[in-house]
Design goal:
Layout (H helix, E strand, L loop, with lengths): L3 E4 L2 E4 L4 E7 L8 E7 L6 E7 L3 E4 L7 E6 L4 E6 L8 E8 L4 E3 L3 E6 L1
Parallel strand pairs: 2-11
Antiparallel strand pairs: 1-3, 3-8, 4-5, 4-9, 5-6, 7-8, 9-10, 9-11
């Protein structure tokens, strides 16, 4: 069973930055997609950013130009650099790794952006 451990959430003022990390318990080479989702209170979980087939990146429209997803193969870790944060970015952020057999979620990390 793959374990995903997230870190880096917290409280930040609008315009600030945070970097989320998601460390996997095994090599990330086998995963076809690695991404970040978020869920705000009363809303459905939504995709924020993802890396597909190790090189293709996709972003939710509202975070384009502000968030960057990246990976460090040597550390088995995926990052989400979040800049120019807005109050509407407030949510619990979850990492998600998928492969042909297996869909894995982190425990979630809270990001709160104050105005």
């Amino acid at each position: 069973q793959v374990q995903l451990v997230e870190s880096g959430g917290g409280l930040v003022q609008a315009g600030g930055s945070l970097r989320l990390s998601c460390a996997a318990s095994e090599s990330i080479f086998s995963f076809r997609s690695m991404g970040w989702y978020r869920q705000a209170p009363g809303k459905e979980r939504e995709l924020v950013a993802e890396i597909i087939s190790h090189s293709i990146t996709n972003y939710e429209e509202s975070v384009k130009g502000r968030f960057t997803i990246s990976r460090d193969n040597a550390k088995n870790t995926v990052y989400l650099q979040m800049n120019s944060l807005k109050p509407q970015d407030t949510a619990v952020y979850y990492c998600n790794f998928r492969r042909i057999v297996g869909n894995y979620w982190g425990q979630g990390t809270q990001v709160t952006v104050s105005s």
